[in-house]
Amino acid sequence: MSLRIFHRRKAVLVLALCCTFSATLAALALAAPGGRDPAFSGDGKATTNFASRNDFANAVAIQADGKIVVAGRAGGAGGRFGLARYNPNGTLDSSFGGDGKVTTNFSTIADDFANGVAIQADGKIVAAGHSSGRFALARYNSDGKLDVTFSGDGKMTTNFSSAFDDHSG
């Protein structure tokens, strides 16, 4: 899944496109209709690889300082929540996880997917999705570390029903 971010005037329009063989989290900025903004990552797009394959972007949030947080699945066997944070110019923000990206593992028996992301007023980042058929939620400090004041370890899962629980957008 590649994530495209279109800059038009002061609004930001986000469009996620599914691609079966995608191996990256990607962001694309457009200066004008049909044209890329070269001020964003030098060519108007940013691509981040978490694993050798099967990385997907599912959600995006823009922080008050203009930094872009993208959440999804960091691939490979037993996928994990994957979050990347970009500076407004499209480069990875090294103050987030040391290299601009973090992964969170909820389960060793199934894939974990982040399908939503939000920025709290205090700057903490919340990602929602699923793990092993259960609703999963993680909260991160602004540096990308799990916030241990949330559920003791920064993450939690909840089973709401016998069916598959998920946050989808």
Question: Could you please describe the fold and organization of this structure?
Answer:
By secondary structure, this protein is mostly beta strands. It has a domain at 51-158: Thrombin, subunit H (Beta Barrel). The chain has strands spanning 2-8, 11-17, 25-28, 30-32, 35-36, 45-48, 56-62, 68-74, 80-86, 101-104, 112-119, 125-131, 134-140, 155-158. It has a four-stranded antiparallel β-sheet, with no helix packed on it. Mean pLDDT is 79; it is low at 1-25.
Spell out the key features of this protein.
single chain, 169 residues, mainly beta, Thrombin, subunit H, four-stranded antiparallel beta sheet, 0% helix, disordered N terminus
Question: How would the blueprint of this fold be written?
Answer:
Layout: E1 2-8, E2 11-17, E3 25-28, E4 30-32, E5 35-36, E6 45-48, E7 56-62, E8 68-74, E9 80-86, E10 101-104, E11 112-119, E12 125-131, E13 134-140, E14 155-158
Brief rundown of the structure:
The protein has strands at residues 2-8, 11-17, 25-28, 30-32, 35-36, 45-48, 56-62, 68-74, 80-86, 101-104, 112-119, 125-131, 134-140, 155-158. It is an all-beta fold.
**Portion of residues within helices:** under 10%
Based on the coordinates given, report the CATH architecture of the domain at 51-158: Beta Barrel
Strand content: over 45%
For the largest beta sheet, what order do the strands appear in spatially?
Answer: 7-8-9-10
Structural class: mainly beta
Radius of gyration, whole Å: 15 Å
- CATH domain class name of the domain at 51-158: Mainly Beta
In round numbers, the mean pLDDT is 79
Could you give the distance between the termini?
14 Å
What would the CATH topology of the domain at 51-158 be?
Thrombin, subunit H
Q: How many separate helices?
A: 0
**Main sheet record:** 4 strands, antiparallel
| Element string (H = helix, E = strand) | EEEEEEEEEEEEEE
Instruction: List segments where confidence is low: pLDDT < 50 over at least 5 consecutive residues.
Output: 1-25
| Quantity of strands, as a count | 14
Shape: globular
